[in-house]
Every structure is written in structure tokens, then in C-alpha cells.
Design brief:
alpha/beta; Hypothetical Protein Aq_1857, Chain: A; 3 helices; three-stranded mixed β-sheet; 113 residues; single chain
């Protein structure tokens, strides 16, 4: 089975967020309908375990993904990039087959089938 993983830089950033979040147990990673291409990433600090989620440990961080989002997210690598004053998470998702022009939403092969 494929998983969702973090780069070392992303894991360090998430660990920092976890240390600042009372009750933080990991990274919640999902998708929601949005934008012109259909899906956008939803990322947050998880504070409770939820039924129906897969947990992938990556560099000491639990990445919690709802089973309903696995079709769009399996194989994704989450990175944390700093460029000048800008810092952001970036997603390398092998399932993405198209993105909108602004880069805020994406489509996967599952929707195009």
C-alpha cells in the first residue's frame, strides 16, 4: 500500500506546530471540493483520532488521512519550502493529472475516468 509522507523539512515544521498546539497528536491531511479543478488540500494539526482514518508515521510525525481521501492522496509527499520571506507547504502528488491556472486546486485520474 502506498502512503503519505513528509520530507525532513516538513516533519520539523510540523513538530514545531505540534509543540505549540495543546493536545496535538499529528498532522491532519485531507482534500475538500474547491476551486476550478475540483479539489484542494486541507492541512491542519490533528487534536483527536477519528474513525475511518489511516495513520502514516513519517520522520516521527503521524500523518492522519481520512480513508475517503486516500484515492486522491496516496503517494503524496509533503514538503516545507522557504524562499526568501515566503514559507509554505508544497505537495508532490503522483495522482494529480491537472491543476487550475492559479495552482490552488487539482484533478486526479479518478475524476477523469
Amino acid at each position: 500500500m502506498m502512503s503519505v509522507s513528509l520530507t525532513p523539512a516538513a516533519a520539523e515544521r510540523v513538530k514545531q506546530y505540534l509543540s505549540e498546539t495543546p493536545g496535538g497528536i499529528g498532522l491532519s491531511f485531507s482534500v475538500r471540493k474547491s476551486g476550478c479543478s475540483g479539489w484542494t488540500y486541507a492541512i491542519d494539526i490533528a487534536t483527536e483520532a477519528r474513525d475511518g482514518e489511516q495513520v502514516f508515521n513519517s520522520h516521527g510525525v503521524d500523518v492522519r488521512v481520512p480513508e475517503a481521501a486516500l484515492a486522491q492522496l496516496q503517494g503524496t509527499v509533503i514538503d516545507f519550502v522557504s524562499q526568501g520571506l515566503n514559507q509554505q507547504f508544497q505537495f508532490k502528488n503522483p495522482r494529480v493529472t491537472g491543476e487550475c491556472g492559479c495552482g490552488e486546486s487539482f484533478t486526479t485520474a479518478e475524476e477523469q475516468a
